[in-house]
Structure formats: structure tokens, C-alpha cells
Design goal:
globular, four-stranded antiparallel beta sheet, 92 residues, alpha+beta, 4 strands
Length: 92
């Protein structure tokens, strides 16, 4: 299944903190997901509330949630919403 990941700032997080987090190198575990084709199309939101969105391939919503939770365990600035998506709206 394919999931869209959309970040949002945790309450009380300042813009400078978001920018600082986004300009650090990507965590090695995140790079592993990219190298294995599980995480793709990573784009960065700009403007008043910087952030990111990306596509994640996972077997189920539960697996996607577990991967995101693991990846964000050390990230204090962002929460991530997970949305199931599809290339074609007529197929479930």
C-alpha cells in the first residue's frame, strides 16, 4: 500500500526549530528506507511552517504507523499524519 506522510509542527515549536531540524542530515534509518524504495518523493514545505511530505510504501496502515513512530522517536519538532493514497481513484 502507498501512504502520504505530511508533517506538522508540534504545538509550541518555533519556526527556527523546524528549519534547524530540516537542514540536518537525514537519519541513517531514513536513508535505508529511501535506498530500499520504501520512502520516496520527499518534498519540503516552505513558508511560515516548514515541514515535509513524502510517500511511504508499507504492507498495511499499522506497519506505516510503526515505521513513522520509530523514525520520529528522536524528533521533537514534528508530528506526522499518515494518509492512504492511490494513483487511480477508481481502485481501492
Amino acid at each position: 500500500m502507498l501512504f502520504m506522510l505530511v508533517s506538522r509542527a508540534k504545538p509550541g515549536t518555533k519556526r527556527e526549530q523546524l528549519v534547524d531540524r530540516l537542514t540536518h542530515e537525514m537519519h541513517p534509518e531514513t536513508w535505508d528506507l529511501v535506498r530500499h524504495g520504501e520512502l520516496s518523493h520527499i518534498y519540503y514545505k516552505i513558508g511560515e511552517e516548514p515541514g515535509f511530505f513524502a510517500l511511504l510504501s508499507a504492507a498495511s496502515l499499522e506497519e506505516a504507523k510503526a515505521r513513522v513512530a520509530h523514525a520520529l522517536a528522536s524528533v521533537e519538532e514534528f508530528e506526522v499524519d499518515i494518509y492512504p493514497v492511490n494513483h487511480f481513484p477508481q481502485f481501492d
